[in-house]
Design goal:
This protein is an alpha+beta fold. 35% of the residues lie in helices and 24% in strands. It has five helices and seven strands.
């Protein structure tokens, strides 16, 4: 399926998760990371046959990948070097309970010292593929 998806879009939404996360952590990280992506990636609201309205979702698939800590740090570095906007999730955020504390937890750590557990990127397919080179599909 990824090959068909690649043919349909010029851009890609991809999330890279550290491969040692518990199931609940991985799901939580993906949810938080994609919430940081731009609103313009969302399509129109959904409406069912009874005219009940539902929130809009992304207009293209989200590819979820995984890799080790070293790959995550390398992908983060590649994105920074390409000036690629990204959402990040650090291990410290598992211990916080609100957005203010999340931002404070990230703010106190230098870029090279971030304990990354996930990053999300939207960009041109070839750029995203280069950033996440070496990652594998999440099972």
């Amino acid at each position: 399926m990824p090959a068909i998806v690649d043919l349909m879009f010029d851009t890609k939404i991809a999330v890279l998760l550290r491969d040692d996360l518990a199931g609940w952590q991985a799901l939580n990280v993906v949810a938080f990371l994609v919430s940081g992506l731009p609103d313009e990636l969302r399509g129109e609201p959904y409406i069912d046959a009874d005219d009940v309205n539902y929130l809009p979702m992304f207009g293209q698939p989200v590819v979820v990948l995984q890799g080790g800590q070293a790959l995550l740090k390398k992908a983060h570095e590649r994105a920074l070097n390409r000036n690629q906007p990204m959402a990040i999730f650090t291990a410290d955020l598992f211990a916080t309970g609100n957005d203010d504390d999340n931002r404070a937890a990230v703010r106190k750590v230098h870029t090279q010292d971030l304990d990354l557990v996930g990053i999300a990127v939207h960009g041109q397919k070839n750029a995203v593929d280069k950033i996440f080179k070496g990652a594998r599909m999440h099972p």
